[in-house]
Amino acid sequence: MRAKSLLCAARRGDIGRTIRAEGRLFERKTDYSSGRQTIRTEDGTTRQTATMPMPIDLVIGFLGGLALGFAGLRSNFCVMGAISDIVLMRDWRRFRAWLLAIATALAGTEALFAAGAVELDAAAYSAPEFGWLAALVGGLCFGFGMTLAGGCGLRALVRLGAGSVKSLVVILAIAAFAYLATDGAGAPVRDWLTAAANPMAAMAMPDALGSQDVSAVLAEATGFSRGALRATLALGGSGILLILCFKDAKFRASRRDIAGGAILGLIVVLGWLASGSQMGEIEGHPDSLNFVSPLGDFLALALGKAPIAGFAHGAVPGVILGAFAAVAWPWRLRVELFAGGEDFVHHALGGALMGLGGALALGCTIGQGVTGVSTLALGSLVVWSGIVAGAILALRYLEARANA
Fold it and tell me: What residues pair up with 24 in beta bridges, in sequence order?
């Protein structure tokens, strides 16, 4: 019971990193002003480490964010735009770029896992609490919100770097409502939704599995080797997605879409490598790209709290500066303002829905849609489907309003 409470608290951001090593759970908090870490074990024993340098994954995340921001702006990568291209114009190129990112992340993450470079079962996406209702509701909210706001969290950061005042409002709304849903008034609702529909708990599967990884579930059900199943699913899924991408002549001819998707997927792999190989006596709680939780953490930091900083936190300012570099050379910075009151409401409401949805779903189009899917977590697949469905619903809603 103690182990479960620690893990749940870590997932909603109440405590520091909760990590598993040698069969035991540890809670690790870091004071980045002094560089010291306090480690508490399940039996209540605490100790403080010596002063440590800035986490390497934070630095690598910033560098990865620079590359992603530059590539994201130059390639016009946008998941919301990809879905609207399909619904409105039957153009699948940008959606295939998203699939290419997933394929790249799947193959690369499996290679790291097979080499022992990252412990994916320690990632929040793979936690045994499979709260499908929270994942579905969160995905629907996020998909609807990103359509109202004209793009997801990544796209908002890229547009901010390019001079968009609209995106600043979106980012502030995401941060505020992500914080409310994890540390504020919305936290009990989030916890209830997560626990309300957890079939793995009903079947007493968490004790047997310790993970919601599809390969772990199938291994438990069939008796086959989990490692073989995981390799088959990850590499087979990656191969199928690559075929779906490159069978299309228009996509093969679109170098910017290929570059945008491939770079995103590789940066997700880089994030797993950086966070999974943290120096110290205890392995860290690995994570890669995700933009909702870090934005909420930045607000918590502004309010005087000290959230954990990692790869994704470094990527946030990196993306903004990378996008700025893309418009600064040659100079193409353009200040984007609201067209009117309704435009402001749509962007603010869209950001709020993304913050709430991302907190419920534990991620966004990138955090769950690429990073989470690369772990083969059941919840990530539910969130991915919910985001797509929510975006389609929002597009139909906006279309109906325009034709009314």
Answer: 21
Structure-token match 């900083």, residue found = 309
Residue whose tokens read 């579930």: 217
Q: pLDDT digit string (tens) for 49-59?
A: 444 456 788 99
Closest to 385 in 3D by CA, of 104, 83, 77: 83
Q: Are strands 24-31 and 17-21 parallel, antiparallel or unpaired?
A: antiparallel
Q: Which of 90-99, 136-145, 332-341 has the lowest mean pLDDT?
A: 332-341
Greater pLDDT, 347 or 24 = 347
Distance CA 389, CA 277 (A): 36
| Nearest Cα residue to 83 out of 185, 6, 155 | 155
| Integer-rounded Cα radius of gyration of the chain | 20
Residue of 65, 203, 53, 57 lying closest to 128 (CA atoms): 203
User: Could you tell me the two tokens for 318?
Assistant: 């990196």
Closest CA to 50 of 306, 276, 280: 280
Structure-token pair, residue 143:
């998909």
Q: Are 56 and 278 in contact (CB under 8 A)?
A: yes
How many angstroms separate the CA atoms of 64 and 57, rounded?
10
Smallest Cα–Cα separation from 356: which of 133, 154, 147, 137?
A: 137
Which sign, positive or negative, has the C-alpha torsion 194, 195, 197, 201?
A: positive
Question: What does the block give as tokens for 59?
Answer: 């630095």
In this structure, what are the phi and psi dihedrals at residue 30, rounded to the nearest 5 degrees?
Answer: -120, 130
- Sorted by sequence, the CB contacts under 8 Å of residue 297 that are 6+ apart come out as 13, 307, 308, 309, 313
The alpha carbon dihedral of 236, 237, 240, 245 has a sign of negative
CB 368 within 8 A of CB 380: yes
- How many beta carbons lie within 10 A of that of residue 210, not counting itself? 15
Among all chains, which residue has been given the structure tokens 């190129």? 93
